[in-house]
Amino acid sequence: MKYIYMLAAFAIPKFLEGPGELNVTGPKIITSFQIGSVTINFTETIILEWIVMAVILGLCIFLTRDLRVRAVSKRQVIAEMAVEAITNLVRDTMGKRWLWFTPYIATVFCFSVFGSLLSLFGLRAVTSDFSVLLSWAAVTFVMITVTKIRYNGLGGYLKGFADPIPVMLPINILSEVSTPAAMALRHFGNIAGGGIITALVYYGLANLSRMIGLQVPILTVGLPAVLSLYFDLFADFMQAFIFIMLTMVFISNAGPADDEPEPESEPGPEEISENAA
Asked: Of 125, 135, 148, 257, which has the fewest beta carbons less than 10 angstroms from its beta carbon?
């Protein structure tokens, strides 16, 4: 026990001192390999993404194990509440027509929240890597484009760039292409900026403690924790919610409203022969 106290007395002040210098860089590159003339970097983000996926998968298995119709467990109640909440959100935002998007919306929200909460454990938040958010936004952009072509046809989709007047063509193209970049930058800027602000405050308080001659930098206790509650908890949930809301709005606006009928498809050969008979 004496050695534990000695170790704590040495380690805690060192921990509170923080880093000697502040570096704001991207994710660490673990290894790199070449594919032709292209260099592929294997970064820490990839490993952290797999950790997040494993955590989410394990949580889903834990909550949905041994499901029952009667005498349900507390785990099942939590799982049903979560599923009902995300289903109601999709229904209220997009309409009943789009309920089949619920698994995608739930996946993006969970991945965003759990990926951002890694910063609470001293790890780099997955969402502070712009490539991760850009890939999510690119998938959403593909869904938006496919939905527009599905309901308007390829000709109607291309014609929409000239609405309301042909002179708007360059602006409409720029607006369409900038959609995934804007979604990714909004999320990335808030998460990465929050992490940098927290690190700057912690670093500044640690150096202020050294300047006034404190053996234990007690100034680093308190304010960084309060900032962490905002940037690592509230901001993480808020940015994840904003991202899925934009996803649902953009996709639902690409198709008809919930009370509008589905566009009629061209009759196939079998339908033509039946009608002729």
From this structure: 257
Instruction: Check residue 188 and give its pLDDT.
Output: 86
Cα 170 to the chain's mean position, in Å?
A: 30
Q: Is the preceding omega at residue 164 within 30 degrees of 0, hence cis?
A: yes
Lookup result for tokens 């890694």 = 118
pLDDT tens figures, 72-113: 888 888 889 999 999 999 999 888 888 888 999 999 999 998
Between the alpha carbon of residue 214 and those of residues 158, 203, 206, 207, the distances in Å are 67, 15, 10, 10
* Cβ count within 10 A of residue 132: 23
CB-based contacts of 215, cutoff 8 Å, min separation 6: 13
Q: What pLDDT, on a 0 to 100 scale, did the predictor assign at position 191?
A: 81
Low-confidence ranges of the chain (pLDDT < 50): 3, 5, 7-20, 265-277
> Looking at residue 5, what is its pLDDT?
47
What backbone torsions phi and psi does residue 210 show, to the nearest 5 degrees? -65, -40
Query: Tokens 């006034």 — which residue?
Result: 212
In three-state secondary structure terms, 264 is: coil
Q: Which amino acid is at 254?
A: A
Euclidean distance between CA atoms 141 and 34, whole angstroms: 29
How would DSSP label each residue in 56-72?
HHHHHHHHHTT--SSS-
Residue with tokens 């100034």: 219
SS3 for 27? coil
Residue found by looking up tokens 């210098």 in the block: 21
- How much is the pTM? 0.74
